[in-house]
């Protein structure tokens, strides 16, 4: 199920010194060519206590160019990390394309430690591992190279290593009571680690077990393995800068119906001005009270606003924010990805803005661009946007599992109403900038966008994060319906 390095298990100092100059040169040459690659490299360094994880990472930082190699060590969560979903801190740390991320500790550390401590049972551990497989597959399908190294020491070797460190005054500080407790739990740790490796060593992201009793052998073996894996991955991606199409993508049928979900909406629904003003005051007041309760109970909320151009997203935002404490919300307008954002997985820029407990993030357009504009305009391949449905569902389920309220709105207007609003905006000096040539051009593909929206709603309106379709030809009606929905969703989470 996983690879075991087959080189000799020890190297003399002389052999080590002889191999290092050539190896370092090849690593640096490879790293320079990697800068132009269309994928990142993610290296996980895990294994037994005393196996030299930190020493190995220091060595790799010495041998590689540190400008393009980012090293991170994941230990106990910070307060900032505890107030967000588990994987938030890992998404922050993902390297950009052409760079290497080197991690001591990873998404494996917490579930293994909890299982050893018996705060997780076997079924719960397997649930964690299933989610890890989904996460790694998503990274790999986006092009990332995931290299997982397990540094192995036997129980006797681990005990000897700790004794040697403790006997030397210069290194005795490195041996902690935690290390000694872990040695006592070695048998349990090894059993759980072997189960973890078997369950998560996949064809796309296999584990490689490195015998680590001899540090010279360990360091050379790891460096050679990194060199081989990265060069092989580069060769696979040389032919094209775009990800290969999934050969099974065509097998996933999208249902095209004559009568669509959007077509069933009654766009004649309206509110008169008097009723609107009364209800606006009421629902903004309700939202204000609920938002304060949510802050006190540390319940966060993510509001996703999607809809047609001129559908009323900005107007709705301006009716939501007066009910919120300005210190506790952020509005994230989504436009064309920056160079930094384009160099990462498409979900990376959205994970960055996930709110802390008790806070609110409003996304003015969102990750659904992958299955809307990127699909229709051809910025994402068929395989990419087909995968995105399950990736998005998994992303949102993580938010909800953390306790975040996820409310998703599609603001729907018809084609005539959109044209009317375009013309009205062109007459107003401070709204004229909102209208571009692209807005008119997109109208020519209305049917394609409508089909994409229907597919999006069918495939991503889940029990934990359903879509709310808002009839928005009448702005007053749309705003009240959305505010009322926000209050209902938040009240349900808060319990009454």
From TrEMBL:
Molecular function GO labels: transferase activity
Enzyme Commission number(s) from the entry: 2.7.4.33
Residue span, Polyphosphate kinase-2-related domain: 11-234, 271-493
EC primary class: transferase
Keyword set, alphabetical order: Transferase
InterPro entries cross-referenced by the UniProt entry: P-loop_NTPase, PolyP_AMP_Tfrase, PPK2-related
NCBIfam families, sorted: poly_P_AMP_trns
Protein name: Polyphosphate:AMP phosphotransferase
Source organism: Oceanobacter antarcticus
Lineage, highest ranks first: Bacteria, Pseudomonadati, Pseudomonadota, Gammaproteobacteria, Oceanospirillales
Gene behind this protein: pap
